[in-house]
Automatic annotation (TrEMBL):
UniProt-listed PROSITE patterns: ACT (PS51671), PDH_ADH (PS51176)
Family named by the database record: Belongs to the prephenate/arogenate dehydrogenase family.
Protein name: Prephenate dehydrogenase
Positions of the Prephenate/arogenate dehydrogenase domain: 3-292
Length: 371
């Protein structure tokens, strides 16, 4: 029997979810709604959805499964409005929001009426937003967290998990409190730090106009996420305010002890500060071949040591194109000597990266690394 799935909000996450569900073996009809008609139209033209609904209400009333993929404050408002909608009896309602406690709270208007709400958060994404950035493989190898309302049965949780299988995400069930505490640590607070580092640069650029040009390498890596959508991050910050304040207090204490460390200038203690961080960082689950995506950032990079002569990049891209291996990004990160540089090629998933490594080892002498 055809399962009607409604996706409300067809941006990066709703669009990527639609693309992933399209490869499902189940018989699925995706009804999409976005407040921007141009976005819904693009989703339809790209085959991400099967039909466009005239309103969120109309999409949801026809659906067996509903996924809200709107910014979290909007999702809370829509859930409130949805208390007046006429749902199918056995509907499962979910979302993709980066926060869970306030969403579960907002969903109470529905669960109090006996409807099933299972919060969702695919923990992969990008600093890019909008349907144009949507990718079928976005959630592959990433955690996909579910926070079921206590009234949800294991059968309903399984039904949603089965539907989400084509995302190739790893489904994990957590409670909303745990979810919001952990995402504050690894995602929401780091985001605030990234934006504040950019703010510090912007402030000091007035006195040091050249400094912007020096902001390469580490600074760019550390602050990439500050280019993300401000509406989305405003909503997350407002909704996870309590956990963020706890993180901020801890950080202020940490900064105080770092201040003492620098003031006292003891080489051994300074060394230990960096050494402890390095040891812990190096032990974080890596994105290397086959391993589950442990951190939030989805990159499947292959680092290739290449000689610095014209034509090398086109030689490599040609080899990959001949094998029909798609690349998502290509850059030179560093020139270590004047003879070698490091070319970093990003792929959509581990399989493509594995295939690229295999073909390049057969056809070139360049050494390759996965960090
Ligand atoms: N961007 C990311 O990396 C990740 C985002 N999320 C969460 O997923 C949700 C969606 O995020 P993105 O897709 O990145 O945002 P986005 O900005 O790419 O897409 C949001 C879409 O919702 C639409 N929209 C806004 N208000 C609406 C309304 N009232 N009715 C219907 N459509 C409406 C917008 O037009 C837009 O197309 C957010 O809750 C976010 O916290 C979760 C994981 C990763
Ligand atoms: O840009 C990145 O890599 C991210 O940090 C993506 C991201 C943003 C929000 C989430 O809730 C989950 C993942």
């Amino acid at each position: 029997m055809t399962q009607n799935v409604a996706i409300v909000g067809l941006g990066l996450i709703g669009g990527s979810l639609g693309l992933a569900l399209k490869r499902s073996k189940q018989d699925i009809h995706i009804i999409g709604f976005d407040r921007s008609y141009a976005t819904a139209d693009e989703a339809y033209r790209r085959g991400i959805i099967d039909s466009i609904a005239p309103s969120a209400k109309s999409a949801c009333e026809k659906a067996d499964v509903i996924i809200f993929a709107t910014p979290v404050n909007t999702t809370a408002v829509l859930l409130e409005e949805a208390s007046l909608w006429d749902f199918k009896d056995r509907v499962i309602i979910s979302d993709t929001g980066s926060t869970k406690k306030p969403i579960m709270e907002a969903a109470k208007v529905l669960t109090d009426k006996g409807l099933t709400f299972i919060g969702g958060h695919p923990m992969a994404g990008s600093h890019k937003s909008g349907i144009s950035a949507a990718k079928e493989h976005l959630f592959e190898n990433a955690y996909y967290i579910l926070t079921p309302h206590e009234g949800a049965s294991s059968e309903q949780i399984n039904q949603l998990s089965n539907l989400l299988q084509p995302t190739k995400g790893k489904i994990v069930v957590l409670n909303a409190d745990e979810h919001d505490r952990m995402t504050a640590i690894v995602s929401h607070f780091p985001h605030i730090i990234a934006s504040s580092l950019v703010g510090r640069l912007a402030d000091q650029e007035k006195q040091q106009p050249f400094v912007k040009k020096l902001a390469a390498g580490g600074f760019r890596d550390l602050t990439r996420i500050a280019s993300a959508d401000p509406t989305m991050w405003r909503d997350i910050t407002m909704q996870n305010r309590e956990e963020l304040l706890i993180q901020l207090d801890g950080w202020l204490q940490e900064m105080e002890s770092i201040r003492t460390l620098i003031f006292e200038n003891d080489p051994e203690l300074i060394f230990r500060f960096f050494e402890d961080a390095k040891k812990f960082r190096d032990r974080l689950p890596s994105t290397s071949e086959g391993a589950l995506q442990g951190a939030l950032y989805m990159t499947f990079d292959l680092h290739i040591d290449i000689p610095d002569h014209p034509g090398v990049i086109s030689e490599i891209t040609k080899i990959l194109a001949d094998e029909q291996i798609s690349i998502t990004n290509i850059r030179i990160v560093e020139t270590r000597t004047d003879v070698y540089g490091i070319l970093v090629i990003s792929f959509q998933n581990t399989d493509d990266r594995k295939a690229a490594r295999a073909v390049l080892s057969r056809t070139t002498d360049y050494s390759m690394h996965i960090l």
